[in-house]
Protein backbone atom coordinates (compact mmCIF):
# COMPACT_ATOMS: atom_id res chain seq x y z
CA UNK A 1 0.00 0.00 0.00
CA UNK A 2 1.35 3.39 -1.01
CA UNK A 3 1.77 5.75 1.93
CA UNK A 4 2.95 9.34 1.97
CA UNK A 5 3.35 10.92 5.39
CA UNK A 6 4.21 14.61 5.65
CA UNK A 7 5.74 16.24 8.71
CA UNK A 8 7.47 19.43 9.75
CA UNK A 9 4.60 21.90 9.60
CA UNK A 10 3.79 24.35 12.35
CA UNK A 11 3.49 27.99 13.36
CA UNK A 12 6.36 30.18 12.17
CA UNK A 13 6.96 33.93 12.11
CA UNK A 14 7.18 35.83 8.81
CA UNK A 15 10.70 35.80 7.39
CA UNK A 16 11.67 32.59 9.17
CA UNK A 17 12.33 29.13 7.70
CA UNK A 18 10.75 25.70 7.91
CA UNK A 19 11.63 22.32 6.42
CA UNK A 20 8.91 19.88 5.44
CA UNK A 21 9.50 16.16 5.01
CA UNK A 22 7.53 13.43 3.28
CA UNK A 23 8.20 9.78 4.10
CA UNK A 24 7.21 7.43 1.29
CA UNK A 25 6.52 3.71 1.43
CA UNK A 26 4.76 0.99 -0.52
CA UNK A 27 6.40 1.72 -3.87
CA UNK A 28 9.85 2.04 -5.42
CA UNK A 29 10.50 5.66 -4.51
CA UNK A 30 13.33 6.30 -6.96
CA UNK A 31 11.18 5.23 -9.92
CA UNK A 32 8.95 8.29 -9.64
CA UNK A 33 8.98 12.06 -9.67
CA UNK A 34 7.45 13.73 -6.62
CA UNK A 35 5.71 17.03 -6.00
CA UNK A 36 4.49 19.42 -3.34
CA UNK A 37 1.01 20.91 -3.70
CA UNK A 38 -0.49 23.35 -1.20
CA UNK A 39 -3.97 24.50 -0.28
CA UNK A 40 -4.57 27.71 1.63
CA UNK A 41 -7.47 27.60 4.10
CA UNK A 42 -10.74 27.60 2.17
CA UNK A 43 -8.93 27.94 -1.16
CA UNK A 44 -8.01 25.74 -4.11
CA UNK A 45 -5.03 23.59 -4.91
CA UNK A 46 -1.78 25.27 -5.92
CA UNK A 47 1.19 23.43 -7.36
CA UNK A 48 4.37 24.39 -5.48
CA UNK A 49 7.27 22.35 -6.78
CA UNK A 50 8.27 19.09 -8.43
CA UNK A 51 11.42 16.97 -8.68
CA UNK A 52 12.28 14.14 -11.07
CA UNK A 53 13.36 10.70 -9.93
CA UNK A 54 17.06 11.54 -9.94
CA UNK A 55 16.77 15.24 -8.94
CA UNK A 56 17.93 16.14 -12.44
CA UNK A 57 14.81 18.14 -13.25
CA UNK A 58 13.26 20.55 -10.79
CA UNK A 59 10.53 23.16 -11.12
CA UNK A 60 8.91 25.78 -8.92
CA UNK A 61 5.82 27.93 -9.02
CA UNK A 62 6.62 31.59 -9.55
CA UNK A 63 5.15 32.36 -6.11
CA UNK A 64 7.90 30.38 -4.34
CA UNK A 65 10.82 30.54 -6.76
CA UNK A 66 13.98 31.72 -5.03
CA UNK A 67 12.57 31.05 -1.55
CA UNK A 68 11.72 27.32 -1.55
CA UNK A 69 14.02 24.41 -2.39
CA UNK A 70 12.81 20.89 -3.14
CA UNK A 71 15.06 17.89 -2.66
CA UNK A 72 14.87 14.14 -2.20
CA UNK A 73 16.92 11.37 -0.63
CA UNK A 74 16.21 8.15 -2.51
CA UNK A 75 18.18 6.12 0.04
CA UNK A 76 15.76 7.31 2.73
CA UNK A 77 12.61 7.25 0.55
CA UNK A 78 12.07 10.87 1.52
CA UNK A 79 11.05 14.14 -0.11
CA UNK A 80 11.80 17.55 1.38
CA UNK A 81 10.78 21.17 0.98
CA UNK A 82 13.02 23.82 2.49
CA UNK A 83 10.97 27.00 2.87
CA UNK A 84 12.84 30.26 3.54
CA UNK A 85 11.66 33.86 3.87
CA UNK A 86 8.16 32.68 4.69
CA UNK A 87 5.23 35.03 4.13
CA UNK A 88 1.69 35.11 5.44
CA UNK A 89 0.47 34.00 2.01
CA UNK A 90 2.44 30.76 2.36
CA UNK A 91 -0.01 29.66 5.06
CA UNK A 92 -1.50 26.44 3.75
CA UNK A 93 -1.84 22.70 4.06
CA UNK A 94 1.11 21.24 2.18
CA UNK A 95 0.56 17.93 0.41
CA UNK A 96 3.23 15.55 -0.82
CA UNK A 97 2.09 13.86 -4.03
CA UNK A 98 3.43 11.03 -6.16
CA UNK A 99 3.09 11.11 -9.93
CA UNK A 100 2.88 8.23 -12.38
CA UNK A 101 6.33 8.46 -13.95
CA UNK A 102 9.99 9.30 -13.33
CA UNK A 103 10.00 12.68 -15.06
CA UNK A 104 7.48 14.90 -16.82
CA UNK A 105 4.42 13.07 -15.51
CA UNK A 106 1.77 15.31 -14.02
CA UNK A 107 -0.86 12.81 -12.93
CA UNK A 108 -0.94 12.78 -9.15
CA UNK A 109 -2.02 9.26 -8.26
CA UNK A 110 -1.27 9.30 -4.54
CA UNK A 111 -1.43 12.11 -1.98
CA UNK A 112 -0.46 12.39 1.65
CA UNK A 113 -2.78 13.84 4.28
CA UNK A 114 -0.85 17.10 4.40
CA UNK A 115 1.04 19.12 6.98
CA UNK A 116 -0.20 22.56 8.02
CA UNK A 117 2.08 25.56 7.80
CA UNK A 118 0.92 28.76 9.47
CA UNK A 119 2.95 31.93 8.98
CA UNK A 120 2.01 34.54 11.52
CA UNK A 121 3.59 36.85 14.06
CA UNK B 1 1.56 30.24 -14.52
CA UNK B 2 -2.06 31.44 -14.49
CA UNK B 3 -4.61 29.08 -13.00
CA UNK B 4 -6.95 27.21 -15.30
CA UNK B 5 -10.50 28.59 -15.30
CA UNK B 6 -13.32 26.54 -13.81
CA UNK B 7 -16.85 27.57 -12.81
CA UNK B 8 -17.04 28.24 -9.09
CA UNK B 9 -20.06 26.00 -8.65
CA UNK B 10 -22.36 23.61 -10.43
CA UNK B 11 -25.35 21.69 -9.20
CA UNK B 12 -27.60 18.87 -10.27
CA UNK B 13 -30.24 16.50 -8.98
CA UNK B 14 -29.64 12.83 -8.30
CA UNK B 15 -29.61 10.84 -11.52
CA UNK B 16 -28.85 13.85 -13.68
CA UNK B 17 -25.61 14.58 -15.54
CA UNK B 18 -23.39 17.60 -15.07
CA UNK B 19 -20.32 18.88 -16.87
CA UNK B 20 -17.51 20.95 -15.39
CA UNK B 21 -15.37 22.92 -17.80
CA UNK B 22 -11.69 23.76 -17.42
CA UNK B 23 -10.30 26.44 -19.72
CA UNK B 24 -6.61 26.96 -20.21
CA UNK B 25 -4.43 28.22 -23.03
CA UNK B 26 -2.48 26.91 -25.98
CA UNK B 27 0.51 26.62 -23.61
CA UNK B 28 -1.11 24.07 -21.32
CA UNK B 29 -4.50 22.38 -21.94
CA UNK B 30 -4.41 23.05 -25.66
CA UNK B 31 -0.96 21.61 -26.25
CA UNK B 32 -0.90 18.46 -24.16
CA UNK B 33 -3.22 15.54 -23.49
CA UNK B 34 -2.10 15.67 -19.87
CA UNK B 35 -5.22 16.95 -18.17
CA UNK B 36 -6.28 15.27 -14.94
CA UNK B 37 -9.23 15.75 -12.60
CA UNK B 38 -9.35 15.41 -8.81
CA UNK B 39 -12.23 15.05 -6.38
CA UNK B 40 -11.83 16.46 -2.88
CA UNK B 41 -14.27 15.95 -0.05
CA UNK B 42 -14.08 18.32 2.94
CA UNK B 43 -11.10 17.59 5.16
CA UNK B 44 -9.75 14.95 2.82
CA UNK B 45 -6.86 14.72 0.39
CA UNK B 46 -7.63 15.01 -3.33
CA UNK B 47 -8.42 11.81 -5.24
CA UNK B 48 -7.51 11.17 -8.87
CA UNK B 49 -10.64 10.68 -10.99
CA UNK B 50 -9.48 11.17 -14.60
CA UNK B 51 -6.00 11.33 -16.14
CA UNK B 52 -4.62 12.03 -19.60
CA UNK B 53 -7.89 13.77 -20.53
CA UNK B 54 -10.19 10.75 -20.54
CA UNK B 55 -8.63 7.75 -18.79
CA UNK B 56 -10.14 6.41 -15.58
CA UNK B 57 -7.99 4.91 -12.83
CA UNK B 58 -8.92 1.50 -11.55
CA UNK B 59 -11.71 1.76 -9.02
CA UNK B 60 -13.23 5.01 -10.29
CA UNK B 61 -16.84 4.71 -11.41
CA UNK B 62 -17.54 4.79 -15.14
CA UNK B 63 -20.04 7.55 -14.37
CA UNK B 64 -17.02 9.84 -14.54
CA UNK B 65 -15.69 10.75 -17.98
CA UNK B 66 -13.38 13.35 -19.44
CA UNK B 67 -12.85 15.06 -22.76
CA UNK B 68 -11.03 17.95 -24.36
CA UNK B 69 -11.61 20.35 -27.22
CA UNK B 70 -9.02 22.99 -28.01
CA UNK B 71 -8.01 24.81 -24.84
CA UNK B 72 -10.96 23.51 -22.80
CA UNK B 73 -11.20 20.21 -20.96
CA UNK B 74 -14.39 18.87 -19.43
CA UNK B 75 -15.40 16.45 -16.70
CA UNK B 76 -18.83 14.86 -16.99
CA UNK B 77 -20.51 13.02 -14.15
CA UNK B 78 -23.56 11.03 -15.13
CA UNK B 79 -26.16 9.51 -12.85
CA UNK B 80 -25.35 11.97 -10.06
CA UNK B 81 -25.23 10.51 -6.58
CA UNK B 82 -25.16 12.20 -3.19
CA UNK B 83 -21.57 11.06 -2.60
CA UNK B 84 -20.43 12.96 -5.71
CA UNK B 85 -20.93 16.21 -3.82
CA UNK B 86 -17.39 17.56 -3.48
CA UNK B 87 -14.90 20.01 -4.91
CA UNK B 88 -13.40 19.14 -8.29
CA UNK B 89 -10.09 20.40 -9.66
CA UNK B 90 -8.60 20.13 -13.11
CA UNK B 91 -4.86 20.08 -13.65
CA UNK B 92 -2.63 20.32 -16.68
CA UNK B 93 0.99 19.95 -17.63
CA UNK B 94 2.24 23.44 -18.44
CA UNK B 95 5.12 23.01 -20.77
CA UNK B 96 8.24 22.02 -18.91
CA UNK B 97 9.44 18.81 -17.34
CA UNK B 98 7.89 19.53 -13.96
CA UNK B 99 5.59 22.54 -14.22
CA UNK B 100 1.93 22.02 -13.43
CA UNK B 101 -1.12 24.29 -13.22
CA UNK B 102 -4.40 23.65 -11.40
CA UNK B 103 -7.85 25.07 -11.94
CA UNK B 104 -9.47 27.17 -9.26
CA UNK B 105 -11.86 24.38 -8.34
CA UNK B 106 -15.60 23.77 -8.75
CA UNK B 107 -17.98 22.99 -5.92
CA UNK B 108 -20.52 20.38 -6.99
CA UNK B 109 -23.79 20.39 -5.09
CA UNK B 110 -26.17 17.47 -5.44
CA UNK B 111 -29.64 18.91 -4.82
Main sheet properties of chain A: 7 strands, mixed
Question: How confident is the prediction overall: mean pLDDT of chain A?
Answer: 95
Helix-strand sequence of chain B: EEEEEEEEE
Report the count of strand segments of chain A: 11
Along the chain, the helix and strand elements of chain A come as EEEEEEEEEEE
Large-scale geometry of chain A? globular
Tell me the span between the first and last alpha carbons of chain A. 40 Å
Gap from first CA to last CA of chain B: 35 Å
Structural class of chain A: mainly beta
Our estimate of the beta-strand percent of chain B is 35-45%
Count of runs of 4 or more consecutive helical residues of chain B: 0
Q: Low-confidence stretches of chain B at least 5 residues in length (pLDDT < 50)?
A: none
Structural class of chain B: mainly beta
Radius of gyration of chain A: 13 Å
Helix content of chain A: under 10%
Please provide a brief summary of the model:
With 121 residues, chain A is mainly beta.
Describe the structure.
The complex is a heterodimer of chains A (121) and B (111). Chain A is mainly beta and 121 residues long. Helix content of chain A is 0%, strand content 50%. Chain A has no helices and eleven strands. Chain A is globular, with a radius of gyration of 13 Å. In chain B, the strands form two sheets. In chain B, strands 1, 3, 4, 7, 8 and 9 form a six-stranded mixed β-sheet that branches. Chain B has a three-stranded antiparallel β-sheet with strand order 2-6-5, with no helix packed on it. The radius of gyration of chain B is 13 Å and the shape is globular. Chain B has 111 residues and is mainly beta. Classes of the chains: A mainly beta (121), B mainly beta (111). At the A-B interface, strand 5 and strand 10 of A face strand 3, strand 7 and strand 8 of B.
Amino acid sequence: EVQLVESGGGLVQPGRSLRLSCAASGFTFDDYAMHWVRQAPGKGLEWVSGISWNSGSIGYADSVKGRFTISRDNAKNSLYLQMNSLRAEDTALYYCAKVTGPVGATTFDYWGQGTLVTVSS
Amino acid sequence: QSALTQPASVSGSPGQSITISCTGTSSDVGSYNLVSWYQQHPGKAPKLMIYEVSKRPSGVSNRFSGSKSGNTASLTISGLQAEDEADYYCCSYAGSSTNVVFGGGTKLTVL
